[in-house]
Amino acid sequence: MGAHCCSHDHDSPPQPDPKYRRILWIALVVNALMFVVEIIFSLRANSASLLADSIDFLGDAANYGISLWVLAQSVQTRAKASLLKAASMALFGIGVLAHAIWNAITGVIPDAQTMSLIGLLALGANLGVAWLLYAYRNGDSNMRSVWLCTRNDALGNIAVVLAAVGVFGTGTAWPDLIVAVIMATLALTAATQIIKQARKELKHHSS
Fold it and tell me: What are the residues whose beta carbons fall under 8 Å from the beta carbon of 156, sequence distance 6 or more?
């Protein structure tokens, strides 16, 4: 559906898909709840990757809220919202890198059991949201940004679980720190992709 929005010659707002709107509301609630759960347990576990994932859940909840607001807006408005979301993803990536460096300096070793349990819970939540959003993955930049955020979250959850196994096996914090860096890289890469598509849409509809 959304793939055809960019082919219109005018800039009139599209008719929002009621199903997509419901999915965004579900995604917003799920992400907000998972942020609360992960922020609590990441602090208890002293896990940089789990903390990064909790912050990502908060950012995604905000992103879903923005997406709901611009759903019935013009292509230009939705593209500008995508640029805002991409900027937040980039800031998240930079923040995670800084936090990983700090944990490496202080030498904190996280709790592997808590990491694995909460990571699996978060993975289940994100896979459910990703399944709901899959049909809209090739829409405009706004829809694509929502899909990429959810996809990256699921990949990040898998990485957190693998990091927990690594921490348990090695008795060091390095697996946790490596995963935190990977998650930051995913955020920066996705932000770059969204910015490129949003700029193309702004250029096309400003002419």
Answer: 49, 52, 53, 56, 179, 182, 183, 186
| Token pair 């789990």: residue | 50
Length of the chain: 207
Residues of the chain with pLDDT under 50: 1-13
3 state SS for 158-178: HHHHHHHHHHHHHCCCHHHHH
* Nearest of 130, 125, 154, 168 to residue 37 by alpha carbon: 125
Question: What does the block give as tokens for 65?
Answer: 């809220």
Contact status, residue 20 vs residue 78, Cβ threshold 8 Å: no
Check the CA dihedral 156-185-39-59 and report its sign. Answer: negative
Tokens 């405009």 belong to 140
The string of pLDDT tens digits covering residues 184-195 is 887 788 788 888
Using an 8 Å Cβ cutoff, are 38 and 120 in contact?
no
Question: Which two structure tokens, joined as six digits, stand for 85?
Answer: 């979301």
Contact call for residues 80 and 14 (beta carbons, < 8 A) = no
Task: Kindly report, residue by residue over 148-189, the tens digit of the pLDDT.
Answer: 778 878 888 898 999 999 999 999 999 999 988 888 887 788
Q: How many CB atoms lie within 10 A of CB 94?
A: 13
Q: Is the pTM of this model over 0.85?
A: no
Contact 38, 125 (CB under 8 A): no
